[in-house]
């Protein structure tokens, strides 16, 4: 189980996250939605300490990690147990797909090369990129790069996978392949926090949806509850705007 | 009266000059390494904005870039022994400065001089690395030194290589001033030959040929390295078991 407690983050005077607490069960796929600038990405980035919040803790298993403290050992534990997938893939440019996936295993987990290679190939197979093992990121399409990035995060066997808008930087026709892989990974029982604007996808893949607005959790429930019977005024507004977009321009 | 310009002398003095080429190259390589090492440290200090050290580094870079190499060589050659002498007088110690060869002074002065330029070259190269990749490395649990060594430096090196090549070529030529520290490298040897034969002009022409050839070789070496570290344009698909033709180099 993973717990986030009293997480607060502000940039200067701008409060992005206001005392957020979440409890995530093993195997949960939690979709985080909400308008832009409400701290969805910041929430993920605070959980693995790419941003340092003012206060807040993360509990992984029975270990409590203070997010605002600077303790290298705790930080390492936190990062080993949280896998991050970025919007812009962020693959290591000078390394092949295989080396990208092996990097964390060798440097952080201190694995032997053969062992790391075996695991990396397995993960690349899972995302359907084993044939591209020796290619560099610049040879790959965005969708392929994101799949390798997913394999890189999975290879570390994190307790929780953080996906920060994994498809927003992709061409529409490449979105599908990445979503398919995420679905496959979710089916394997990985715990995930997924920030995305692909509402339909969130609706299908997640078993819990959180609506974030101005740094607060304003809606929290199953996809059916949140998408079909939103309780909060702000959530209803958000969806009604989206539905207007989805409606045909005119009907004869 | 002899010939105005004796071509044969140009070539006949080359073998004697070449005996000092190792000293020129050694001095250049060592100064380059000092420059790279110090430059990297200064670049990181400036990038990380470490207090006090940043100001000291800025002052040092400004001094090193703002004064001529020949002045720096003289300052090192005369200044360092004077400093030691003062220390000896002050504290009654007996630090033997006379045993230090001119090569060491030249090495220190040229290395320091280069580090001032290197710091800026390295800093701009380090900053050219996509911050997203650094974040990704941190997210995996890599520390800054690990990220620096495995992710940032390999990418920055490729960016910096052409400029570093330039610097190395300018050091090679900078070593010709090392005579100020009583180092006999090829230019000093040329002056000795000139003094012996009164054929200064021919000797300087031979020197020009040698420097130019050395530079040509270095240019070629840099080109080879550039091709080697560049990401290949095409890679074959790996076979089903993932074993490809290219060996990974971890």
Automatic annotation (TrEMBL), chain A:
GO terms for molecular function: ABC-type amino acid transporter activity; ATP binding; ATP hydrolysis activity. Keywords: ATP-binding, Cell membrane, Membrane, Nucleotide-binding, Transport. It is a peripheral membrane protein. Pfam families: ABC_tran. One of its GO terms (cellular component) is plasma membrane. Residues 2-239 form the ABC transporter domain. It is found in: Cell membrane. This is Amino acid ABC transporter ATP-binding protein.
UniProtKB/TrEMBL annotation, chain B:
One of its GO terms (biological process) is amino acid transport. It is a multi-pass membrane protein. It is found in: Cell membrane. The chain crosses the membrane at residues 23-45, 57-84, 96-113, 203-222. Residues 21-222 form the ABC transmembrane type-1 domain. Its main location: membrane. Pfam families: BPD_transp_1. Keywords: Amino-acid transport, Cell membrane, Membrane, Transmembrane, Transmembrane helix, Transport. One of its GO terms (molecular function) is transmembrane transporter activity. The keyword Cell inner membrane does not apply. GO terms for cellular component: ATP-binding cassette (ABC) transporter complex. This is Amino acid ABC transporter permease. It comes from Fusicatenibacter saccharivorans.
């Amino acid at each position: 189980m993973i717990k986030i407690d009293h997480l607060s983050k502000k940039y200067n005077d701008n409060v992005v996250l206001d005392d957020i607490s979440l409890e995530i069960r093993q195997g949960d796929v939690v979709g985080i939605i909400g308008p832009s600038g409400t701290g969805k990405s910041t929430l993920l980035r605070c959980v693995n300490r790419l941003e340092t919040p003012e206060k807040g803790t993360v509990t992984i298993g029975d270990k409590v990690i203070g997010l605002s403290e600077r303790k290298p050992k705790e930080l390492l534990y936190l990062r080993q147990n949280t896998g991050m997938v970025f919007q812009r893939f962020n693959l290591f440019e000078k390394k092949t797909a295989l080396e990208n996936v092996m990097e964390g295993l060798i440097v952080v987990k201190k694995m032997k090369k053969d062992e790391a290679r075996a695991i990396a190939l397995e993960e690349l197979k899972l995302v359907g990129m084993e044939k591209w093992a020796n290619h560099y990121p610049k040879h790959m399409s965005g969708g392929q790069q994101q799949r390798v990035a997913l394999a890189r995060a999975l290879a570390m066997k994190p307790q929780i996978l953080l996906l920060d808008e994994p498809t927003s930087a992709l061409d529409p026709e490449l979105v599908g392949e990445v979503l398919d892989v995420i679905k496959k990974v979710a089916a394997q029982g990985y715990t995930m926090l997924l920030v995305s604007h692909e509402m339909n996808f969130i609706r299908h893949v997640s078993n819990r949806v959180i609506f974030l607005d101005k740094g607060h959790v304003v809606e929290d429930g199953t996809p059916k509850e949140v998408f079909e019977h939103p309780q909060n005024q702000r959530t209803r507004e958000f969806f009604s705007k989206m539905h207007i977009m989805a409606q045909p321009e005119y009907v004869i | 009266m002899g010939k105005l310009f004796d071509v044969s002398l140009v070539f006949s003095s080359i073998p004697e000059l070449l005996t000092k080429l190792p000293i020129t190259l050694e001095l250049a390589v060592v100064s380059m390494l000092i420059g790279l090492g110090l430059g990297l440290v200064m670049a990181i200090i400036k990038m990380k904005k470490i207090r006090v050290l940043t100001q000291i580094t800025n002052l040092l870079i400004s001094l090193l870039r703002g004064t001529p190499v020949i002045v720096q060589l003289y300052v090192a050659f005369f200044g360092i022994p004077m400093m030691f002498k003062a220390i000896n007088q002050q504290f009654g110690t007996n630090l033997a400065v006379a045993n230090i060869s001119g090569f060491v002074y030249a090495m220190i002065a040229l290395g320091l001089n280069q580090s001032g330029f290197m710091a800026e070259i390295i800093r701009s190269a380090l900053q050219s690395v996509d911050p997203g990749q650094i974040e990704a490395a941190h997210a995996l649990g890599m520390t800054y030194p690990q990220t620096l060594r495995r992710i940032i430096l390999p990418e920055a090196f490729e960016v910096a290589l052409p400029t570093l090549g330039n610097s190395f070529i300018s050091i090679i030529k900078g070593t010709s001033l090392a005579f100020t520290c009583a180092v006999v490298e090829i230019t000093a040897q040329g002056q000795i030959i000139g003094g012996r034969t009164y054929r200064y002009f021919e000797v300087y022409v031979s020197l020009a040929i040698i420097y130019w050839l050395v530079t040509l070789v270095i240019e070629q070496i840099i080109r080879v390295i550039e091709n080697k570290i560049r990401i290949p344009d095409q890679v074959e698909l790996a076979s089903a078991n993932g074993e490809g033709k290219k060996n990974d180099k971890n």
